[in-house]
Amino acid sequence: MRSISGMIRAFLFLRVMLRQPLPTFLRSTLATFLGVLLSCLVLCTPAAAAQWQKVALPTTATPLELWMEGDHGWLVGSNATLLETTDGGLTWNPHTINLGEGNYRFESISFAGQEGWLVGRPALLLHTDDGGTTWSRIGLSSKLPGDPILIRALGPNTAEMSTDIGAIYRTGDRGQNWRALVTQAVGTARNLYRSPDGRYIAISAKGNFYSTWAPGEVAWTQHNRNNSKRVNNMGYTPDGRVWMLNRGGQLQFTKSAGLEEWEKPIAPKTARGIGFLDLAYQDEQNIWVTGGNSLLMHSNDAGKTWHREADELEIGANLYRIYFFGRDRGFILGQSGTLLRYAT
């Protein structure tokens, strides 16, 4: 971003110089350089330049997950936060659900058409069939292993729910009955990632190891981390490989689908050792990583090189989650009511 600002200043300076009386050869040289600089500004500016902007939220609660389809979306977070947008995330309106006493933390929300699901903790499951206008509470068994932290709507009356210790359940009757998909939980998870095709990765609470599960398997498979740095988060790339974020500002990718071979760890100097927290693909070439202390990293060459973005936004918050809903729309969730929106 700073390099772009420098190019703009140089461009303006050259324009001023060309208005001065100059020798013909020097004027020709400056005019040529001005044309090259203009081309760079138009063609070489990163796609992300000046695209991330803060969005004011009607709360200081920390947002935890966001669901978006077209211009309609929902955001959930701490302090029973439930916000809705109908203009692509420019403005957000609060919704209040009467849950009686208790301070709930809304963890995850998902819709399939007009049917929606919301989970939180202490153990909470809500369901709507009118697009979120009204919500009804569905009772959960007192024997449920852990609190639900992730829900995905899969079709009419069907959803998949997972808990903070790695129990995974599926319902096909609007939440009245749930079938366990794994024989036992994996243990307290720092992060739980589900790919669109139903594969999971769970990071242990201390980041010492991680576990994977795929549809059709009966149990989680445990894996030791492949270096000395503890794991913060993991997920799947669009081409089926795996990405890993480690403490101290380090990231890795597997060489192919699976977990057998890993590429060399990458530790961008501009991250200055700040921990990475989440990663998202904008498209095959553009990858974004968020982290603590307002850290936002961007690669426009599929992860080969990285540079730091958005320092001038003065965000002043840890950035926990990042999403892209198509190439031209993205969001970043951060602490204390922080929301960033990317749009062209």
Description:
It is built from two helices and 27 strands. The strands form seven sheets. Strands 1-27-26-25 form a four-stranded antiparallel beta sheet, with no helix packed on it. Among the domains are: 1-45; 103-185, Thrombin, subunit H. The chain is globular, with a radius of gyration of 23 Å. A hairpin with a 4-residue loop joins strand 15 (200-204) and strand 16. The longest helix has 20 residues, at 24-43. The protein has helices at residues 2-17, 24-43, and strands at 52-54, 63-69, 72-77, 81-85, 93-94, 105-112, 115-121, 124-128, 136-137, 148-155, 158-163, 168-171, 179-180, 189-194, 200-204, 209-213, 221-224, 231-236, 242-246, 250-253, 276-281, 287-291, 296-299, 307-308, 319-324, 329-334, 338-343. By secondary structure, the protein is mainly beta.
